[in-house]
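Supplementary notes for students who missed Thursday's class. We covered one full example, reproduced here. Read the sequence, then the structure, then the short commentary at the end.
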Amino acid sequence: MGAAVLILGIETATAQVACALGNQDGILAVTSLGRPRRHVESLVPAIEFTCRQAGVTLDSVHCIAVDVGPGLFSGLRVGVATAKALAQALRVPTVGVPSLDLLAFPVRFSSRLIVPVIDARRGEVFCAFYRQVPGGVQRLSPHQLLSPADLASELLARNEECLLVGDGALRYIEQLGETVSFELGGPLHSSPSAEALVDLAHARALREEFSAFWDLEPLYLRRSDAEINWATAADARASDRRAG
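Structure (token representation):
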């Protein structure tokens, strides 16, 4: 695929709904809606609005990029399902990019250890560690699901100056702030970036590093709340039967 590739990026891993359109000339249009738990109602209108703002039609898109997580279960499910449906309808390839990569990439010029932290709810966070490299960032660790206290312990063990970004860093800054030396990215870096998604996907598109829509899968790291509640209830029923 040549340089003139138009990419639609879909970002729904957190409470934010965002999408962006871009090509070799950069970002053409972006829409961001901070309406918690309104992914189903907001995503398709946001895509349509972004296409109008960019002055393009959806059938001119060459590739669908989507944040595959980790993140909130309902948002990821909506984003990935929409990306699959569009890719199938338009007969175009897909690119899946992890949410923590999308938080780290916009702050890639920092010389500090970059630590994106996403609020996973239930008193936990999704996180990973990144380092600046020529042209971007390199992930140094697996994607992790940790308590804020466990993440703070890892940061203390590393004993490095850190740059914390993401809504999880903002929410749990008191616990994480006990680390040796840190800088907080602030609200502008609280959510994965749809613009970064398009930028990273474009680089992969030029290398033809695509996925077929049927291979696109979310990176959950944890079962959904419904599955957890069902398992808890099943354990309670089993305990009651044993007691009876």
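Commentary. The first strand starts at residue 7 and ends at 11. Residues 225-236 have pLDDT under 50 and may be disordered. If anything here is unclear, bring it to office hours.
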